[in-house]
Structures are given as structure tokens and as C-alpha cells.
Prior knowledge:
The complex is a heterodimer.
Chain A: H1 2-33, H2 38-41, H3 56-64, H4 67-98, H5 104-116, H6 123-132, H7 139-144, H8 150-161, H9 165-173, H10 178-189, H11 191-207, H12 210-215, H13 224-235, H14 241-273
Chain B: H1 2-36, H2 54-61, H3 63-93, H4 101-113, H5 116-126, H6 133-140, H7 155-180, H8 184-192, H9 197-208, H10 210-225, H11 229-234, H12 246-255, H13 260-288
Helix pairs in contact in B: 2-13, 3-7, 3-10, 3-12, 4-7, 10-13, 12-13
Amino acid sequence: MANRRLITKAVLYLILILLAFMMVLPLIWMFLSSFKTGSEIFAQPPVWIPETFQWKNYLNAFNLAPFGIYLANSLITATAITVIQIMLSSMIAYGLTQLEFKGKAFLFQSMLLTYMLPAAVTYVPSYVILAKLGLLDSLTGIVVSNISSVFSIFLLRQSFLKVPKEIVEAARSEGANDWQILWKVMCPMSLSTIFTLAMITFVEMYNNYLWPSLIVKSQSKYLITVGLNQFFTTQGTFQNQWAMIMAVNVISVAPLLLLFFIFQKWFIKGVGDSGLKG
Amino acid sequence: MRHRMQGFGSFALFIGVPVIPLIVFWFIPMFVSLWLSFTDWDYISPEIHYVQLDNYVTVLKSPDFLGALWNTFFFAFWTTVPTLIIGFLLALLLRVQIKGRPLFKALIFSPWVTPMVAMSIVWSWIYEPKIGLLNQFLGWLQLPQPEWLQSSTFAMWAVIIVTVWKSVGWCMIFYCDALGKISDEFIDVCKLEGATIWQCIRKLYLPLVSPITLFLAVTLIISAMQAYDQIQVMTQGGPAGSTRTLLYLYYQMAFQQFNMGQATAVAIILVIITAVISLIQFRLSKYWVHY
């Protein structure tokens, strides 16, 4: 009996290791390939570990395009969007849960409607609006057009609804106004939701491609995703370019993977029980 | 009076201010899109003519649209169903108490964190017909080696594989959480009654996780309708339009041909389809979702 359980466990381990390996294989392959020489890239059968690590692939890539700037642009816009979006969403969520006003149900229903719709529908008019505001081809334009998210509002609203009424009333009787209640009571009590939301928003905004690629035209404003695809299409896929392209990929993926593996415990738990499923 | 003023001040602050970007970049564009879909605007000319339903008629009759419509359904179905099934099975495997479970979860989830653009580039290389990792592996197994991205029959599958690969981890996390909430007593009873594993899964696990399945199915389909990055990087809708979805068609019409009228008509049709599918899912959920 004990033997059988041991075997089942071993088989399970084997399956899991195999599956996990398959899932990260493209990432490993990318990483290893970024250090290869042209001939190693084209070797048949494939070479796994490069003989000598070609660090110059990274240098060459940086010399061909300003990936440092792209990376900075992405990190700055994603951070700005995350912070502003969460602040604005908390304010609306507070209004929806704590204030009484006319048209509250209407507002909530209109938001519910937008939640279901593909964002792409808004692209043509949003593009024109950004043009009218003079914000095309600017990082501000990317930030401004992304700071409102119905998803964030819903998530925060749900979390705020769980804050006990007594606590809010106690704060109010001690003379706290709405502004103080929001930042000193509601938000601290919804910290895990805010954290999860921040992680998801940051990842999504860092990875965002279609919309930024439409509104940004000059190279100095490229986000990493835009610069990456630009590099991929212009460099073509000949010869040892692949190794350099993989190097660039590693650079673009590294910040998020690093962030994820530092916070993975909270992140995975947070996504699981954040009430995302409504 | 003072109280009312305070009430209004709070309203202006908490709703009035943050609702501005929501109105400017969501509500207004939505109505403007609807309006544009009845016009012949080409982005450049100042004149806009009202063309009634012409855009919709032209679009609905065009073979490009019908092809894209079929591709969209095909893509949505074949990404959503496998993602759900694989995500669920992974979560079942991870139910067993073993060491290193968080690590397995993190590794399987990690593709979700990466940019689709970067991963699509990596995968286009894996799909390379001669020296790509996938075909070298298939050749080693003596299996046929299709020209993935260059073949109009396989390109769509190539895009689907990447999409599923990137989202199963997300699905798994939700199923892990849902399965974790099922008490062990249930499972013991199920085993005591002499049911097979398959019967336990069907009679016990599946009904208990059905609310999550509904949630995931709706969100996965909505995001499948909006898939763009992987198509743009790997195939640009080709070869021969075989991977052109409605969203990609919309992008080409709007931002390559500047045919804003027809493009927004496509967008509105996409919205209607998304809304109808979500509605059908919620309606049908009465029969198979158990709360």
C-alpha cells in the first residue's frame, strides 16, 4: 500500500515536472539562444547550451536601437497608469458604495455595459480625441487614455462593500470626512485587493501593444513592446540576427519575470481569492 | 444647507473628477463609433456624409468579413475550450499535497506575465519550418513537419497554441482556488462509495467549480475576441487571410486603409457578437452552473 502511494507520487512528480518544463521551455530556449553564435542558432540538431556565452549579442542590440529608453518609457507609463488608475478607481468605488446620489444605478449599469465590450471599439474616436488634445505621440497620451478602468472600479467596489459599516460609522463619528475615510479606512482594509489589482494592471500596461503602437510615432516615445516588434520587423530573420532578437526579448521579459518571482506567493494567492470572479 | 453642500462637494470629488476620463475615453468613443459606422469618413477629409446602413451592407457582403467572422469563432472556440480543460486538469494535478507545489504553480503561471509581443517573436522562431525547435522535435519523432506560419491551414493553429500556452496558467490559478475550497470530506465520501476518479470528477468537482468555469469562459471569449498582438507579430492576418480575425480586420480597415466608416461598422458588429455570446452563456448557465 505504502509502496503504491510512493509510485503514484513519483509518477505525479514526473508529470508535473514535464508539464512545468514544457510551459517554461520557450522562455528557457529564448534565454539560452540569446547567448548563441549564428552557427549555433542554425545547428541541426539544436544546440542547447552555447559553447561560450556571447554577451556581445546584448551589446549589439543596444547599439542598434535605444532599448534602454524603450524600457524606461514602459516602466514609467505602466507605473503612472497603475498608481493613477487605482486612485481614481478607489474614489469612484467609494462614491458607489458610500455616497447617495441621483443616477447611481444608471452610472453603475453603464459601467457594467462597457465592461463587456471590446476596448478596440473605442480606438478610432479615442485616437481623434487624443489628437484634438494634442497628446498623440506622447507618453502623457498613453497614460491619460489608460487611467480609467471599469475592471478596477468593480474590483475595488467589491472589496469596499466588505468593509464593515460599523468601522466606517465609527470613523465618521470621530469627525473623519469622506476623503479621510477613503484613504485611512477603506484602502488600508482592502490592501490585498489593491496589491493584486496593481500587479495585474502593471503587467497588462507593460505588455500593452496595440493601442500604444497606434498613438506613438517617434522612436524616443516607443514602449518596449512597440520597439521590440519594430526591431523584429526591421532586422528580419536572417543569419545571426535571431540571437540578437532573443537578447532583446530577454531584456523586455526580465523586469516582469523578476517582479513576478519576487511577489509570486502573494500574486498567485491574490489572483485566486481577490474576488475577481465577481 | 451646509450638509447638502458637503454632499455635493463629495459627489463632485469622488464621482465627478474620476468619471471624466471614463467618459472621455470610454463612453463618448463608444457612441461616436456607433455614429461613425453610419458615415463615410476617411479620417482626412473634413466632410462627413451620412450613408445610412451602407457600411454594414458592404461589410456583411464582403468575403473578407465572412472569412474573418469564421476565423474569429474558430479562434475563440479553440482557445477557450482547451484553455479551460487544460487549466482544470493542471489544477486537479496540483490538488495532491506534494512538496514544491507553489513552485510548479509559479512556473506554469509565468507565461501569463510575459509580453505577448516578445513571446510571439520567440514562438515564431520555434515555429521556423527547418531549424525551429518544434519541427526538429517533430522530425525526431518521425512526425510530419508543417510550415506552421507559412501555411494557411496551420497558421491559425500556431496562433492558437501560443494563446493557449499563455493563458492556461491564469485559468489554473482560479481552478486551484476553487478546488481548494472543496472540503476533503466530500472527496472521502466519493471514494468510499466506490466511485472511480472519473466519476468523482464529473459528479463532484465539475459541478462545484461551475461558477468559475462560467466566469473564465466569459472572460476568455471576450479576450479571444480582442486578440491582436500574436496575430500582428506572427502572421499579420495571413497567409491568405487565414488568421485574420474581426479585430484584425478592424485594425487594417481603420489604421491602414483609413476606411473609418466600414471599420467602425466591423467594430460595432464585434460588440454585438460579444454581447450576444456573453448573454447566451449567462442564459445557458442556469442549466449547468450550480451555486
